[in-house]
Amino acid sequence: MRHRLLLTLAAIALLTTTIPLLAQGQEHDHGVRLLAFGSEEMAYIRLPGGTFVWPQSEVLGGSRPRVILDFPGINNWNEAYLPTGGGDIIRRIRTYLHNDEARLRVVLDLAEPPQHYALSLSYETDPQGAEITVSAIPLDH
User: Whole-model pTM?
Assistant: First the structure.
């Protein structure tokens, strides 16, 4: 119980504090990163400023389990393809900007089918943009 409380407090602290994302030595107002707290992994997606619209989402199982998030209204994303990750749950985070549709697609590749995890999606906005958090916790089998 105490460890879970500490993990929760650490997650809240990260959600309420914007950590600048660095790419090639320059600060950007957008990007992705993956953090782990014990058995929980959190993918952070920092979107550029503007009006935040809740993403369309899809969770797929099968031989290539993944979470797909489509954010409409995004037309500024320098990292057209940015594979990151390497966690035990979230193996990789991929992004692709569909310029013709002003839509950013974020794909979280999972290690196992989604029924093995409790997945949650939350967000926080500020004048510079929005930070979306996807949390994945393994379920006891």
Answer: 0.74
